[in-house]
Request: fold
Amino acid sequence: MSSNSIYRSLRRYKPEKRLAQLKRRDRAALPYLDPLKPASPKLLLDTTVYIDELQGRFPRQAEVALRASELWHSTVTEAELAAIAGLLDPTHQGTPQVIKQVALSIEKRPSYRILNPDEEIWREAGILAGLLARLQHYGKSEQRRVLNDALIFLSAAKFGCVVLTRNVADFDFLMQIAPFGKAVFYEEQ
Reply:
């Protein structure tokens, strides 16, 4: 890619024009899952979906919407799930079982339905993460978290998917800055 590609991305998001902190939108203004109709023909699952499913907190009515959609996965969510293996206390008796559940969740993903962010997505996710960090006064850990969310969000947009997530805060802000991307929300059970 040419060195001008970062300037194309900067023109797309216009960070120099964004000076005010973003406000969270009211729940009524956001798209939430409706169990009576499909959310999208193609859903990219955020890490919250896997965690809630593993912990038995994923809402049962939302499973209807999942069955009506084509499910896609991301290498970013795989990395976030894999991080659990390093974060958990290896001396805790429940750790091996949790790692086994996480591994099974990752291994059952069909390889032909896994999205991997490309160079353009990484670059634009970096811009979005930096922009959100500046506007929302995020610290380093929040900036890293929102970088992963931006990678998932932009991958979904590029490949015609809608992100399914419980993470209203970050994905609402991402949709405000990049309205070409879409997310649909659910509330844990």
